[in-house]
Structures are given as structure tokens and as C-alpha cells.
Amino acid sequence: AGFPPPHTTLIYNKLVVKNYLTKLWWMIPVLMVSFAVGVAWLLINSTKEKEQESITKISAECTNQLVEDYKCWKERLQSLALINSPEDAFKELKQSYETSAMVKSQCHQLSHIIGRSASKKYGGVSEAYKHGDNFCWSGFYHGVLEDVIAQTGSENVISKISTICSPAAQEKYSFYHYNCVHGLGHGVMIIEKNNL
């Protein structure tokens, strides 16, 4: 007495589930789209985090046997610019300019590194240029544009290239405008792998 046979309960449960699913069919596409958006968001943000994740502390000083090591200087100046400021990176670059033959010979390229880091830190031309320095033939400004063009991507560069330097062109054909346009060339060469 009291309990229905097991097969009746099973049939009843199947009917309840089927009825429930019939009413909520529309949730399947919603869940699929939500899942896809979530995965896309994770992929985009994990790439940004990995980029910043690799630089969580200032690299060791490039002294003694590392004073002539380009990789050491690249990592040091990049981390100083990202974590502290481009001004701090330039302070160290200027201090080492007279004492390291490698720093002196690669000063322009090292300034590019500081510029790329400033672009990442400040999000583009306008804000990054406020932290710039003309030291070593304005490599900083060229580096900013290398990063801006890399972030723009080869598929979008044609449609955006004419406006990228607008924030830097307080006065058309000024030194800052020239450096911006010159830096565009560096950036285009990089994304096109020097294949013009």
C-alpha cells in the first residue's frame, strides 16, 4: 500500500522533465551564446594578463658582467617604465649612457622599448607622449607608435592611420608630429614584417 510501482514513477518523472524542458527550450541558445561570450572574454583578458603578468617586478640592475647585455637592459628598462614610470627608465638610461658602450650604441633602440612600454602603460599616443623624452634621437616616440600600430593590427591600420597622430599634432609638422608620423613607419614595418 502507499508506493506506486517503480516504473510508473519513472514514467511520471520523464514526463515532468520533458514538460519542463519544453517550456525552457529558449534557454539553450541563450546559454550557448553566454558561454561563447564568456570564453571570448577569458581569452582576451588572459592575453592581456599574460602580457602584464610577465612583468610583476623590476628586473635586476644591469651591472658587472651584465652591463653590456642588451637583454638585461631591455628587461630592466621595460620593467622600470611599466611598474614605475618612463621617466624612471630614462633616468637610468641616461646615467648608464656614458659608462656602458652597449647602452650608448643601442640607446635609440632602448628608447623604443621605453616608448612601447609607455604605450602599454598609458593606453596610446596622447597620454604616453606626456611621459616622453627626446633622449637618443627620439626613440621613445617611435616606440610608442610601434606599440599603437601593433595594437591596431594590420587589418585596421589602413582605416585608422590618418587619425593616430592627431593627439600628438598640437601643431602640424611640429617635432612631436614628425616623431609620431615617423613612428607610424616603424610600426607599419613591424606589422608587415618589413615586407612593403
In short:
By secondary structure, this protein is an all-alpha fold.
N- to C-terminal distance: 87 Å
What is the 3D shape? elongated
- Class inferred from helices and paired strands: mainly alpha
Which parts are unreliable, with pLDDT below 50 for 5 consecutive residues or more?
A: 47-53
Task: Give the SSE string.
Answer: HHHHHHHHHH
Helix proportion range: over 70%
Rg over alpha carbons: 27 Å
Secondary structure tally, helices = 10
Task: Assess the beta-strand content as a share of residues.
Answer: under 5%
Number of strands: 0
Strand count, sense and barrel status of the largest sheet are: none
Mean pLDDT: 83
Would you write up a description of this structure?
With 196 residues, this protein is mainly α. Helix content is 72%, strand content 0%. The protein contains 10 helices and no strands. The chain is elongated.
